[in-house]
Amino acid sequence: MDVIYVVLPLALLLGGGAVALFIRCVKTGQYDDLETPPLRVLADDLDEAPPARRAD
């Protein structure tokens, strides 16, 4: 039963830290745009030249 005096405050501290980090991420705009980054992978890069063909 004595272990609960150590584990409970530790759990509350870790939980509070996780909530604080989540609030910080939301305030800095980490979760603002959730749709564009996955679509950026599918877009063709127009800045790069196409690979040169070898004359065989």
Key terms:
single chain, 56 residues, mainly alpha
Task: Characterize this entry briefly.
The protein is mainly alpha-helical and 56 residues long.
Profile the largest sheet: none
From the N-terminal CA to the C-terminal CA, the straight-line distance is 80 Å
Roughly how many Å is the radius of gyration? 24 Å
Share of helix among residues? 40-55%
Low-confidence stretches: none
What does this structure look like?
The protein is mainly alpha-helical and 56 residues long. It has helices at residues 4-27, 36-40. It is built from two helices and no strands. It is elongated and about 80 Å long.
Layout of helices and strands:
Blueprint: H1 4-27, H2 36-40
